[in-house]
Amino acid sequence: MKKKLKIKQVKSGIGALKKHKATLRALKLTRHQSSTVHDDTPQIRGMISKVCHLVEVEEIK
Fold first, then answer.
1. Residue 22: Cβ within 10 Å count
2. What value does the CA radius of gyration of the chain take, rounded to a whole number of Å?
3. Domains of the chain, with CATH numbers?
4. Which residue from 28, 40, 31 is spatially nearest to 11, judged by alpha carbons?
């Protein structure tokens, strides 16, 4: 069974770079305090590392 990641946006993307805003959209984080669940893949981990200052990540078994 694959691990899942719960990703929650904790800071607004208003003042962020365009790349960071695009990454938030790709992660399906549309608003402040919104959250989504994704599979734990290297691609998702890479996206999280780019916007780590805007999100919180929690592993779900």
1. 15
2. 11
3. 4-60 (3.30.1390.20)
4. 31
